[in-house]
Amino acid sequence: MAEDTTVPKLNFGYWLDKAIEWGQATTLESQKDVCLHLPQLREFLHQLYETVKHSGSTVAIQQFPLIGQLLGRLCWNPFVIGYDESQKTLMWCLCCLYSSEPQNAVELKANSWIRSLLCHLLSSSKWESNEAETSTFISALGYTSADYYCHLVKNMVVSLVTELRENQFSGLNILGSISASRVNAVSIFCVPLITLPDLTPLLETLLLYHGGSSKEILSSEFLEAVNEAFLKKKISLSESAVFSLWLRHLPSLEKATLHLLDQLFSIHWNSLEEVACVMKDSLLPQAASHPAIFRIVNEIFKNALMETDGTSGVMTVIQVFTQLFLQAHQNENKQHKFPLKAYFPCHHQPLVRGLVRRPFELPTTYRSQHLKHISDMLKALVEDANVSSLTDLFEIWFLVACFGEWLDIAAEQLLKDAVEPDAVLWLLAFYYCPKNENQQRTQTMAEAQAVYNHLMMLFSCTDLSLKDLEAAVHRITGIEQCWNQCLTTHLLTNFLLFSPGGHRIAQECIYHITKTTDMSKVYNLLIRTAYRFNHNGEEDQRTVKLLNELLQKLTLKV
C-alpha cells in the first residue's frame, strides 16, 4: 500500500486505480488504506463536482470517460460513503451525469443506473449490511430489486416529507430543526429525479418549505428544473406549490410568463375563449392574485407591448389576462384578499376603482354615467401639470388599456345609448392617441366627432348601401395617421354590428376596410366583442350570428 498520501489535484487515473484496488474494503489492509486517503478523496470528489457541475452529462463523460466506473465503485465502499460529506458529494456528481432528456437507449440505461445508485446512497445509513445480506432481505420481502428501489423511493419521500412538515410546524424547536444546508442538499438530490411521479409530494413540500432563514435555502438548479418540468407538462403540481415557486424564484416567473406569450402567439386563435383557456392552464392569472406576481407579469406584458409597437394582438392578450386576474381576485377569500393599491401602487386610486368595476356588474342604464366618470377622472389626470413626462403619460395609458373592456363598451354605448358623446369620444381619442404633441389628440377627437355625427344620422336607417357609408370608409382608407384610422374603424365596425341597417352591408363594408388597413385590428376587435357577448349574453341572436359570420370570413384571411 502506498504510504505517501499527497496526490496531484484531480488525478483521475490515480483515484480510479485506488477504487479498483479497494473494492468494497472487505480486508483489514484495504480498510486501513481507505481511511488513510479519505480526506484527500473528499477533496478530489469536491473538485470533480466543481469541474463537471456546469458542463452537462455529455460533456462530463467526454471529459472523464471512466467517471461512471469510478463513482459506481466508490458508492459501494462503506468507508467512503460513511466519511464526512463524501456521500453527499457523490450524489452531486451522479446528478451531473443524469440526462434530463435522454436521447437514446444508452442514456436511458445510464439514468436508470444513476437512480439505483442514488437510492442506495440515500438508504446506506440504514443498511449497514453487505450487498448479499441486503439481497437476501429483499428476496425475503418478496420484492425484486426493481420493486425494492421503487418502494425505497416512496418510503424515502414519505420520510422526508414528514420530517420537513414537522420541522415547519415546530420551527421554534431549535435543537430538533433541520439545517438550511440539509434542505438545500435534499433539493439538489431531487434535480435528476424531478419527473418521477413518486417524488411529487417531496417537490411540493420543498416548494412550500421556508424554515427560519431569510435567504433562499432551495438550490436554484432545483427551482429551475421544477419550473422547466412544470412548463413542459412533465409534472403536475398543486396551485399553492406553483405560486410558491414563482414567489421565491423570479427567473422562473419570468420564464413562465414568456412561455405563455410564446404559446399564445404560436397558435391562431379562433376565439378568446381559447386564449383564456391557455392562460388559466398556465396558472398565471390565478397566481397574479399575489401582488408581487401581478406586478412582475404586468411589467413583462408592458415590455412585450412596447417591443411590438403596440400590436393589437398583444394588447388583446393583456386585456384578457386582466379580466381573468380580476375574476381570480374577486374569488379570493376576503380574509386573504389584498387591497387594489397593492397591485397598482403608483396609480390614482379612484381611477383604479372605476376601471376594475366589470361592465356586466353594473345596470346597463348606469354604464354611460360610469364611463363619463372614468373619462372625467382620466382627463383631469392627463391635463394635470404634474404629468409632464412621456413615461407618466404612458403609465396612465397602459393602466386604461389593460381594462380595454371599458373602451369597447364606450364605443358601443356611443351608438346605442344616450350618452354625453364628448366625454366618451375623449376617452377613446386618448386611448388611440395618448400624446397631444402638435395637437394630435385634438385632431383625432375632431375626426372621431365627424365620423360619429355622420354615423348617428344613419343609425336609424334600415335600408343602407355602401355608398351611404362612403365618407366614413374613406376616412379609414384615406388617412395616414394610424390613431385616426384605428378609432374610425372601431366606430364604424360597431355601427355595422348594432345599427338596424348595418347588418346587410357589414361583410361588403368590412371587405373594403381590410383591403387597405391592418386586418388583424378588425379581427381582434371582433373577437373581443364575441368574447363579451358569450360571457354576458346581452345581445340579440341576429347580431351574434352576424359577428360569427364576419369572424369566419376574416379567419380565412388573417
Automatic annotation (TrEMBL):
GO cellular component entries: Fanconi anaemia nuclear complex
GO biological processes: cellular response to oxidative stress; interstrand cross-link repair; nucleotide-excision repair
Pfam families named in the record: Fanconi_C
InterPro entries given in the database record: FANCC
Lineage: superkingdom: Eukaryota
Protein name: FANCC protein
Organism: Pteruthius melanotis
